[in-house]
Fold:
Amino acid sequence: MTAAYSSPINPLLAATITSPIVESRRWVENAVFRDDMPLINVSQAAPVDPPPAPLRQAMAEAVLNEVDSHLYGPVLGMPALRDEVAHQWSAVYGGAIKRDNVGITSGCNQAFCAAISSLAAPGDAVILPAPWYFNHKMWLDMAGIECRVLTCGDDMLPDPEQAAGMIDDRVKAIVLVTPNNPSGVEYPPALTSAFYKLAQKRGIALIVDETYRDFHSQTGAPHGLFADPDWQDTLIQLYSFSKAYRLTGHRVGAMICSASRMLQIEKFLDTQTICPNQLGQRGALFGMRTLGSWLARERQEILDRAAAMRAGFPQLDGWQLKGCGAYFAYVSHPFDAPSNVIAKALVDKAAVLALPGTMFSPTVAEGGTGHAERHFRIAFANVDRTGIATLFDRLAAFSP
Structure:
């Protein structure tokens, strides 16, 4: 009998974890929830409502009337959208940003993958604070790039001095996410500046992912890094239009970096999606030009929900709120079992779907400190104040 032939699987891909979002959806796909206790889903940080009506109307008109909206476009995105980003970013951050510094990507995840691909080869290393955004860790693993874990303190802030001791010739970049996913913590300007100066001094890149910038609690620029006339030598910024304008399904993100790096980024993007989504780009441009007041109201609603999380948390005996901001609360639980076990019990007994810390940090078995097993991420952006109150009631009554 001839043995069945099996084509090879890339071992790096095989060793990469299953997406936590995919895995968590499997926990509930066959579950039946009581009518008086419907599922509260605080697992995913993405808007569930469609874009506002004026934006949808503009996209519909583009479908009907703009032939170019159905064709390949420039690899780095629509010139008008790149110009708008450069103009608004220069005004907000107080720096000199031009069209050549801006690339439009198929979502912010692709921007991260492109940035890393321009910096590091298999065998190189990148410093990633933990808890991390899991797709960042997944891409490093798939690409054969070492993830050097910079474990945050109890305040959920990474330490630049600790990072300095981790840098050698193999390290090509440090990654920061602010407001942070998963902790919600906003990194103070002095902290991002300290990391910038460290990266600048050591000749590596600082990647700053600002996907949730539009929901920062402070007005004005969250940092002053672009004000340095030499920012292009060190800084790579990532951004997402998905959260601001509810364009998640249209996949539109952005990267800001040096013009010389952007030429290399263009090669990566051309082999991936060829060009960003044409309708999504038109939606993003419409949003940037006309929806400032609407976005300001969206921001206030998210800030109000964050305030509700902070106000209600003291009623939970033994739980601790470690960070809260943008879309997220990061919490420690009081139980003996690890968070990945408790997460499934929360679904079964409390009809709450939240992601365990084991999806955001190395476990003890992987060399971690136990941080992963003690924590949860709660994505509250899609839960109003009434839903947040119900969430607290269920967590208060929960026992694994």
In short: The chain has a mean pLDDT of 94.
